[in-house]
Amino acid sequence: MLKVINAKILTTLSIEMKSLRLYSYHMFFTLFLIPSSYIIINMLNQGFIKDQVGFLLTGFIVTIMIGAFISMLSLRVSNLMEAEVLELYSTIIVNKTQLIIALVLNYLVLSIPQIIIAGILAVVYSTQVNVLKFIFSIILAGIFFASIGVFIGLVIKNKYKASGIVPYINIIFLVITPIYYRLDNMNRYFVYLYSINPIVHILNIMRESIGIKGLNSGITLSYGYIIILCAFLLKSIYKKVNNIYILEKLI
């Protein structure tokens, strides 16, 4: 049974990978050129100080995940939710859950090389690092961003609407998140407002594991906040996926 399920997911994953050839330029800009240009400019400006390099590399990892899961995965899921696309996938006898998993794995595969390279460099350039906590923080971040991407796609359910909405969501997340700048010298009231943003807590968890000081609110709050949000998003996704009905019902 497990082999059959895995075979279906791999078949769907293969189809998705082939279809992405149409978006090769978009992927190159979103997953490589734009994140790399930001980090190179910041490193040239601020120098290759150990603490600063780790700070920027964790920001780079988060930027990659925003690009892969929010910018790209959400668009693909919203396209998938259109009835004619669901009908097309029903011909390969794959259920909705397997289809969503295949889409997530697809964009995970595309982002893993950059994340691994950045993660290794962050560990090398860090003075104090807990490798297991750092790996766990990256996995937690991946679950969180993948959940957001899938949730946005399931809510919008239309590729053309998503094409107009998602880029703004992407930009807002990048602007209001201290990816390449610090909160240290900001007014405390602004820091409180920033603390509402879950991505700030993702960065706090990630940076704390490599010895970089984060929010004054503490790491326990960040873990609790993100885990609760992930649970809420996954539960909402489960409900929305089970409420999908099409003319030719998927198995």
Oligomer: single chain
Major beta-sheet overview: none
Q: Give the terminus-to-terminus CA distance.
A: 14 Å
Find the count of extended strands (DSSP E, 2+ residues).
0
Give unreliable regions as ranges.
1-5, 247-251
Quote the average pLDDT.
Answer: 80
Helicity range: over 70%
Q: Could you characterize what this model shows?
A:
With 251 residues, the chain is mainly α. 77% of the residues lie in helices and 0% in strands. It has one domain. The protein contains ten helices and no strands. α9 crosses α10. The longest helix has 31 residues, at 50-80.
Chain-wise SSE layout:
Elements: H1 2-19, H2 24-46, H3 50-80, H4 83-89, H5 96-124, H6 131-156, H7 159-175, H8 188-194, H9 198-208, H10 219-242
Helix pairs in contact: 1-5, 2-3, 3-5, 3-6, 3-7, 3-9, 5-6, 6-9, 6-10, 9-10
